[in-house]
Each structure stands twice: as structure tokens, then as C-alpha cells.
Amino acid sequence: MGTEIERKFLVCDDSWEPQAHRGTIYRQGYLPCQQSASVRVRVAAEKGYLNIKSAAFSVRRKEFEYEIPVHDAEDLLDTLCQKPLIEKIRYLVDFGKHTWEVDVFEGENDGLVLAEVELKSPDEPFELPGWAGEEVSDDPRYYNPYLIERPYKTW
Questions:
Q1: pLDDT tens-digit readout, 117-135
Q2: What pTM value is reported for the model?
Q3: What is the domain count for the chain?
Q4: pLDDT given at position 120
Q5: What percentage of the chain carries pLDDT values higher than 70?
Q6: Residues 6 or more apart whose Cβ sits within 8 Å of residue 27
Q7: Residue 36 lies in domain
Q8: For position 89, which CATH number holds?
Q9: Residue 112 CA: distances (Å) to CA of 34, 58, 105, 106
Q10: Residue 30 annotated among the catalytic residues of the structure
Q11: Is residue 83 a contact partner of residue 76, using CB atoms and an 8 Å limit?
Q12: CA distances from 14 to 26, 49, 107, 153 (A)
């Protein structure tokens, strides 16, 4: 069993220098399922993944992830996943003692930029970069399953 401990923030400016970092294109979708978990299919860097997370919108969640054949992932995205798909470019940005994931959304969620930091415990201290704005870890609107149901462009 895996546990994810993650804090999520809006990005308030581009001083994290997106041009200095190489991003990975992500295409992902969610299979329709019960309210207790989300089942995500993802293609990133020409690899396929299946991910299952508890549906709680909080800093700590159960998480399981498995690599699957990329052609299976693409088929699932095209045929079984809810639309619109999540399209984003993920940048890894080192700041302090942590590596932040900065997601620049495209498609129906264009204009949204989020930063996440994974922690070993909910109370682990970390440095907050100047480009990290309001914390949205407990706001369900900023989780990908919600963004499929209500894309950022419609807010």
C-alpha cells in the first residue's frame, strides 16, 4: 500500500523560469468509478501508467501506481476515459531540499498552473518558493478528476 503526502499551490508568476526546465507532456484521463477512489490512466514520456488514489481531497491519500504498456494506456484514454482529457506539461523544479512539480495545463484547463511538493510526513517542513501562491491542497476544484467534470476554462 502506498501513501501520498502532497501539498498543492497555485503558481502566481513565471519566476520559476519555465524556459530553463525541460517539461514532460502528460495526457491523462479517468475511468468512471465509485466515489471512494479515482482510477487514472496516463501517458508520459512514451510510457503508460495506471494509478489508483483514494478520493479524499486532502494532503494525505492512499496511492497505487503501475506501469502498463503504452498502447494499452492510449487505447484506454481514447475509448474508456471520461472527456475532456487532462493535458499538461510537467516541469520538475528544485527548490530548497525538495523537487517541486509545476504543471502548466493546456486544452480545456489552459491558464491553470499548479505546483505540488511531495513530503514524507504531513508536518515535514519545506521552503515555499516566491512563485508559489495560495495553497489549494484541500480545495477539490484543483484536483484532476474535478477538472475533467468542470474544466478551468468554465470557471
A1: 999 999 999 999 999 999 9
A2: 0.89
A3: 1
A4: 94
A5: 97
A6: 42, 43, 44, 77, 85, 86, 87
A7: 2-154
A8: 2.40.320.10
A9: 27, 20, 6, 8
A10: yes
A11: no
A12: 20, 29, 19, 20
